[in-house]
Specification:
Number of strands: 26
Radius of gyration: 21 Å
CATH superfamily of the largest domain: Enolpyruvate transferase domain
Bound molecules: ligand EPZ
Strand order of the largest sheet: 24-25-1-26
CATH topology of the largest domain: UDP-n-acetylglucosamine1-carboxyvinyl-transferase, Chain
Number of domains: 2
Strand content: 25-35%
CATH architecture of the largest domain: Alpha-beta prism
Shape: globular
Amino acid sequence: MQAFEIVGGNRLRGSLTIGGSKNAALPIMAACLMCEGESVLHNVPDLADVRQLMVLLGRLGVVCERDDSGAMHIRVEDEMNTHAEYELVSKMRASVCVMGPLLGKRRCAQVSMPGGCAIGDRPIDLHVRGLEALGAESELAYGDVVLKTKKLKGSEIFLGGPFGSSVTATANVMMAATMAEGRTIIASAACEPEVVDLANFLNACGAQIKGQGTPQITIDGVKSLQGTEHTIIPDRIEAGTFLVASAITNGDLKLENARLDHLLAAVEQLRQVGVIIERTEKGMEVSSSRRLEPVKITTQPFPGFPTDLQAQTMALLCLADGNSVITEKIFPDRFLHVAELNRMGARLRKEGPTVIIEGVKRLIGAPVMASDLRASAALVLAGLIAKGKTRVHRIYHIDRGYERIEEKLQSVGANIKRVND
Ligand code: EPZ
């Protein structure tokens, strides 16, 4: 296994280009299952999760190949297999995104229940409820959800759950509804930019979707979808992670190809902390005042503060001048980074879905364990400012969602290298 070895203290300076969004690319790749002809996707990040989905799509008769420019060419060659097996789905939960396209195009989907992961239970009851509302019959068979239907019929669907809207359930139901007969209305739909990017891709393929980005999405079914060319939006969570990297090292970073309008809640909160964030022609510039103010943050569905930036922001608030509070409303157990940050001298106390963060003067380098994608990123950020050396173990978690993060950080002055553990 590999680890990152980081020596803290360097202020990051220079510019970084933000890559394509993992959470937009994955459902859009899955949507190509429904298309006639070839789709060409630009700005698909080179991540472990993307490579994993390419393997699963291959098993489902969908060929995905990158050309020399990095563009991904996707076309359906065989529609026989409709089974997304446990050995693949258990490696990457987002594989559940093939459920809607399989049902929409092949009228059958057998997808392994993804099970839990480091950030908590990952139920798919909203996915199944939404697809049943379109006429699918579901049953559980040896850990797989099997959905079948002769015909999908549009209907009105409420997709809200106990933690608000669901991003991938909205994606799955929207994709299936594009090939249902008649009109579907999804109420309490997720408004994330990744859902908007998926809807825009589908419309370019000939779908009839309106209201994407609002809590009510209307889809009028069509007979077929034609592959198209599409550029994936920038990854707002990668951008947010580097916002924090600049702030925590008291650096001055220019982020190019970053969409400030996709990060307004996070930018607002970070400005209250004392982070200076200015819009530039190509994205944004980030620096910070020496003194960081404590704040209270609650994670919410978009456009609220993103749960995927909770861990990274906690690392920054460890050094604020006073007590901050973070409440996690989306994944209440998403706190595996708390114990590891405390090993670095942070003073964090978890009380249910809330963590009290008592600001400290400094963090001290230590060997720490990555656990999930964003918690691991938080440990890297803490290592960038901690006194001395930090070794972050099990960094395969990071490679799932960040493309060569150590090279990007090295290019702006960080003392970080990838080593064999
Ligand atoms: C997407 O996951 C993202 N992943 C996650 O990013 C992100 O944290 C999450 O949305 C929230 O923004 C992808 O897009 C591939 P949800 P998703 O369904 O769709 C509950 C990362 O780091 N729920 O919006 O799986 C669920 O338990 C990843 O890139 C149900 O109760 O999340 C959670 O509490 C991590 N029943 C809440 O809804 C369901 O059927 C929101 O989950 C589905 C979800």
